[in-house]
Design a protein that fits this description.
UDP-galactose 4-epimerase, domain 1; Rossmann fold; 4-stranded mixed β-sheet; alpha/beta; 15 strands; 10 helices; single chain; 327 residues
Length: 327
């Protein structure tokens, strides 16, 4: 297949490109503006430096390349920033995605894999912290809302153009780095827990912070479902095969179905690194639900997705080893 990967120089996108590239039957084009991505992380394929907001240029790229499928990662994804700068998120995450979908329809690219987020679910009522694809949605921040709007655009487009098929993958908390150590997470000023803990354990930060210990959880800190980036990359390939084999447009949770508290992640990072680094408590961050865990039965049944790296120790170990390598 001739596949376009937007945001393929970023953390998750580069791991997907690596897996696609190791399967030599695919021709890969990576499109990235390198604002948060890194060209050296692209191990395979042709690279085009472009911004999705340049609608005319994107249309020309589609015209010249005759893609069979699009896997769309490119997005802004920092929750606190989305609250202070919502327009950036609606323009980059929603408007640019709408134009990308428009180009697909215009140029008969009828397979679209979309990088979405569990932030769409927001805070669940009562003890319903394990969410299915049918669980109520209600994003607590513009990041989640911008992704939910893009999901709606995809669904409506597939209804209007039945030949256009899509898969929406709602990511839970992506973490870890490639098991072979070739690529990892290079994000500057990271806010995600495992990355921050790995940077602190490798002495790139003096200390790290916990944002709230008064949530209704077993130790008062937030619970999240952490999925290894390699397993998430595999889910995208499985989604592409699902559409290739006649699968219908649908959405799927991407997580392991179990969660860990902030304290549990930090303690595991201290264990794998052997560094009892400093941790400081601060108040809650706006927009953080207390717990989110995926029910992943739908993706495992429909796509026969089989995670290989469901191990918090391995997730923390690969993240820590990458930080030690890039110091």
């Amino acid at each position: 297949m001739n596949i376009l990967v937007t945001g393929g120089a970023g953390y998750i996108g580069s791991h997907l490109v690596k897996q696609l590239g190791e399967d030599t039957q695919h021709n890969i084009t990576v499109l990235d503006n390198l604002v948060t991505g890194f060209e050296e992380a692209i191990l395979y394929g042709k690279f085009i430096n472009a911004d999705l907001s340049d609608f005319d240029k994107i249309d020309k790229i589609f015209e010249e390349n005759k893609f069979d499928a699009v896997i769309h990662f490119a997005a802004s994804l920092v929750v606190p920033e989305s609250i202070t700068n919502p327009l950036k998120y609606y323009l980059n995450n929603t408007s640019n995605t709408a134009n990308l979908i428009k180009c697909c329809v215009k140029h008969n690219v009828n397979r679209f894999i979309f990088s979405s987020t569990a932030a769409i679910y927001g805070e669940q009522e009562g003890d319903k912290i394990v969410v299915t694809e049918e669980s109520p949605t209600g994003a607590l921040n513009p990041y989640g809302t911008s992704k939910q709007m893009s999901e709606t655009i995809l669904k409506d487009t597939s209804i209007a153009h039945p030949e256009f098929k899509h898969v929406i993958l709602r990511y839970f908390n992506v973490a870890g780095c490639s098991v072979d150590g070739k690529i990892g997470q290079n994000t500057a000023n990271a806010t995600v827990l495992v990355k921050v803990a790995a940077e602190t354990a490798s002495n790139q930060r003096e200390k790290m912070y916990i944002f709230g210990d008064n949530y209704p959880t077993k130790d008062g800190t937030c619970i999240r479902d952490y999925i290894h980036v390699e397993d998430l990359a595999t889910a995208h390939i499985d989604a592409l095969n699902y559409l290739q084999n006649g699968g219908q447009s649908d959405l799927f949770n991407c997580g392991y179905g179990e969660g860990y508290t902030v304290y549990e992640v930090i303690n595991m990072m201290k264990k794998v690194s052997g560094n009892d680094f400093e941790v400081e408590m601060q108040g809650r961050r706006e927009g953080d639900p207390s717990a989110l865990i995926a029910n992943n039965s739908k993706i495992t049944n429909a796509m026969h997705w089989k995670p290989r790296y469901n191990d918090l120790e391995l997730i923390c170990k690969t993240a820590y080893e990458w930080e030690m390598k890039r110091k």
